[in-house]
Amino acid sequence: MASDISIIIPVFNRPSELEELLQSLTEQTDTGFDVIVVEDGSEQKSDEVIKSFQDRLSIHYFYKENSGPGASRNYGCKKSTADFFVFFDSDCLIPPAYIESLKKRLAQIQSFGGPDSAHTSFTPIQKAISYSMTSLFTTGGIRGKKKSVEKFHPRSFNMGFSREVFDKTGGFSKLRFGEDIDLSIRIVEHGFKTMLISECFVYHKRRTDFRKFFKQVFNSGIARINLYKRHPRSLKLVHFFPAAFVAYQLLSIPHAIYHHAIWVLFPTMFYLGLILIDATLYAKNPWIGVLSVWASLVQMFGYGLGFMKGFLKRIVLKQSEFHAFDKTFYK
């Protein structure tokens, strides 16, 4: 018997993470869904993990050559018989009432996304990165915190849409980074509505160290310019902030050193002080507050430098689409 909802999970060399995600799905208060795992050319396969859940979940496993997460999600859609698809990244944990909350709204939904949060089991670095990626002071609150349909674009770590949306849009594009935002924009362009369901949140581990985090956000900065070339109206003022922040540091720090003008650093010190206070109060932990300051700096510099590189190569030099750190689609 076909289920109303298929949960589609692309995975690449992450059997342990997948096991934790699947375990969280066994604890759902509403079990009316099936799970499709698409192994995207992994060397560390998840087939044994899948077998351990076959008596607890309606689960289907497919192995294919590596093509990136977007193509793997499309593959999962084509293998599904459900009318609605939900997408999670393998580094997510799903709260027990997620599916129950979603089904209460399912009849009204064409496409949706949900926010993310940090689980108590996350490491301090993961909690700091989670803060940096969701804070008003770093992302402007655009990653799952806005209610406005026009401004909210679902992200692939926690999003869903109907089979009709998939058929009309063709699903995810071949972009390796920013493919979820590209699809969200095309969903709206095809006349469908997107919405935020705040109750349908996930615990998103994101990156496990700052080096991997830098690679992720650097690619995201490049992807924002690639998206601009495809969808010119998608570029907002907030997207320029990290690049402006980086440019200010590159100019102000040498000026402060050579001219003994410490006052030029006051805006940065004030900004980082706000982050320290806000993150400490949010996490109720001063150490996570300190790590959040560093995570925010990594995010700003990574995204800002990627944005600058993308701007130079794509807009100034008029080169074709590109991305960096080619082997880090899931890392």
Keywords:
alpha/beta, three-stranded mixed beta sheet, 12 helices, 13% strand, globular
Please report the number of helical segments. Answer: 12
Stretches where pLDDT is under 50 for at least 5 consecutive residues are none
What is the CA–CA distance across the termini? 36 Å
Q: What percent of residues are in strands?
A: 5-15%
- Let me know the average pLDDT: 91
The SS-based structural class is alpha/beta
Q: Compute the gyration radius: what is it?
A: 20 Å
> What is the 3D shape?
globular
Strand order of the largest sheet: 3-2-1-4-8-6-9
User: For the report, how would you describe the main beta sheet?
Assistant: 7 strands, mixed
What letter string, H or E per element, gives the SSE order? EHEHEHEEHEEHHEHHEEHHHH
Give the tally of β-strands. Answer: 10
Oligomer: single chain
- Percent range for helical residues? 40-55%
Report on this model:
The protein has 331 residues and is of the alpha/beta class. 48% of the residues lie in helices and 13% in strands. It has twelve helices and ten strands. Helix 1 runs parallel beside helix 2, helix 9 (210-230) runs parallel beside helix 12 (286-316) and helix 10 packs across helix 12. The longest helix has 31 residues, at 286-316. The radius of gyration is 20 Å and the shape is globular.
